[in-house]
Amino acid sequence: MFDSTVSAIPLPSTIVLHNFKALASFVFLALIGYIIVPLFIRKNIVDANGHPIPPGPLLRYAFIRNHFELKLYAWAKKYGPIYSLFMGNQLFVILNDPHVAKDILVTNGSIFSSRKNYFLKHQIILKGGGITGAQYNDTWRKHRRIAMSLLTPKAIEKYAHVLDYEAHIMVRSLFRDTQQGSMPVNPHHYAGRFVLNNMLTVSFGMRTDSSDDPLVSRALYLADEFMELTGPFSNIIDFIEPLQWLPTSQRTRGRKLRDGMIEVYGAMINQVKERMDNDENVPDCLVKTLLEVREKEGLSWEDMCMLCAVFILGGVHTTSSIIHWCLARLPSHPEVQAKAHEELDRVMGRDTWPTAEDEHKLPYLRAIIKEVERVHTPFLVATPHYSIEDFVYNGYFIPKDTVVILNTYTLHQNEERYPDATKFSPERYIDDKLSASESAKLADPMQRDHWSFGAGRRFCPGVVVAEHELWLAISRLLWCFKIEAIPNEPITLGEYEGLSGSHPLPYRVKLIPRHEGVAEMIDSRDETQI
Ligand code: HEM
After folding, report:
1. Which of 138, 132, 139 is nearest to 115 (CA)?
2. 165-193, pLDDT tens digit by residue?
3. Are residues 115 and 136 in contact, defined by beta-carbon separation less than 8 angstroms?
4. How far apart, in whole angstroms, are the C-alpha atoms of residue 517 and residue 439?
5. Element (H, E) at 195
6. Which in 158, 258, 385, 392 has the greatest CB count within 10 A?
7. What ipTM does this complex have?
8. What is the pLDDT of residue 242?
């Protein structure tokens, strides 16, 4: 039997072991203290004059996925109009106030208009192309200039008749497929096809009767996959660098997406090229322009594919999601519909529906569209900007290579600009006569309608065509139909799908024709009249 007192006296070997354990614990704690902890806790960076970075949450994040906009909003309430946040090693500065957004992104646009080379979106998928993926440089200027040649109000005049026709077809399909409004419908596919056809026209001079067309359905699939893979805060692989060296499923999906984009958009470009080579009459479109200027502008095949891709990626989900949100929102606001219908009956009558020229005669309808854009902005934050120089703003240091976020969701909750901001109230825009692009140029950012199309030099180049499409679609839907929810099928407005662009969860509505003029107007044109 051992004597416990003896066993308590340490032997020399026990002392060594004990010291080793103590040393090991010390090293372990030091490791945690100096290496591990800083990986999780924010750094306090100051410039040479002691200006600190803006305040912000203590912890570093590897990703923020579910309802990131609510988290950004809560932090804005805590830290104020400008705060900072670490995602892995990357510093983000978040802009939550109209004046701050204008000062940084517009007034100092020469510093804050680049893009971070996000691993998945930029290095793997876009490889610095497609305008949105380009750094702030001459390539971006050139690609944006070429794209703009199809997107100015003057350029749109050339294909405005197609947008008009497609809006007609969308409303007609909804009317016929629901058997004159007697069957419920999920409008997602209809809004999607309308916008897709518009973008196919602008980009490739073509349209489709069916999204079962193999090339078109692949183009749509690629757009979905892009939206799924490229949220600004959602991918751990973007912020934890060592993961980028591993063959993760995200990296594989990103590469497959890139290859698919080159293959699908390349095939569509080749179709246009063949038609041009055969002296067929190809309507003015992006691909025609690209093929004509290719040599002069020094465009590679990949540049051309990515430029086409971005019209589909940037122009389809965004615009269709606003139409989709509008139809989800209006059933719970019969009073808004009643006012819109009164305005339509008074101004347009019941023999003819609105065209692009009627927009300024129907201020309440315009106000509904602006309010949907505010409340259901597709991009809850705009595509992140990136700084190319050190900068000090209101005493805060914003180092070079900071990601700068226009916090659209939070900006749209600003109670001073939008009293009772959570309420859906088109009345707040009733006197607003400006388009979104005119509004973005206002000297006073508190007068601006909303921030859904971004800010500064990267402001959405597709804004005019998007607003034109939205006007035709929404004004005609309201001229034709009363939009009602289905009993016992509540429509969820607080949740959404999508990482980089939000659209509603699947729902169904009833579209009840408002008067006899609807059928007549719908039948007034046949399929071939483009
Ligand atoms: C309602 C529809 C749309 C919304 C809400 C929307 C929104 C946006 C936003 C927030 C940005 C980022 C702006 C920034 O970085 O500050 C953007 C950029 C862009 N959008 Fe749109 N967009 C829409 C429609 C379109 C359409 C129809 C097209 C193409 C015809 C388009 C093409 C682009 C492109 C190419 C960029 C990148 C611009 C750049 O980086 O310089 N968008 N859009």
Report:
1. 132
2. 999 999 999 999 999 999 999 999 899 88
3. yes
4. 35
5. helix 188-204
6. 385
7. 0.99
8. 84
Q: What average pLDDT does the segment 380-408 reach?
A: 97
For residue 125, report the distance from its CA to the centre of ligand 1, in Å. 18
Residue 76 near residue 94, CB atoms below 8 Å: yes
In tens, the pLDDT along 114-171 reads 999 888 888 899 888 889 989 999 999 999 999 999 999 999 999 999 999 999 999 9
The SS3 of residue 25 is: helix
Token pair of 79 as six digits: 């830290």
Is the pLDDT at 367 greater than 70? The verdict is: yes
Reference 127, options 316, 249, 262; nearest CA is 262
- From the CB of 426, is ligand 1 less than 6 Å away? no
Ligand 1 midpoint to CA 193 (Å): 19
User: Ligand 1 within 6 A of 465 CB?
Assistant: yes
Round to whole Å and give the CA distance between 399 and 51: 11
pLDDT band for position 511 (cuts 50, 70, 90): very high
User: Which region holds residue 210: left if phi is over 0, alpha if psi is between -120 and 50, else beta?
Assistant: beta
Q: In what order do the strands lie in the sheet with 82-87?
A: 82-87, 90-95, 403-406, 385-386
Q: Is the pLDDT of residue 216 over 50?
A: yes
CA 224, CA 316: separation in Å to the nearest integer? 10
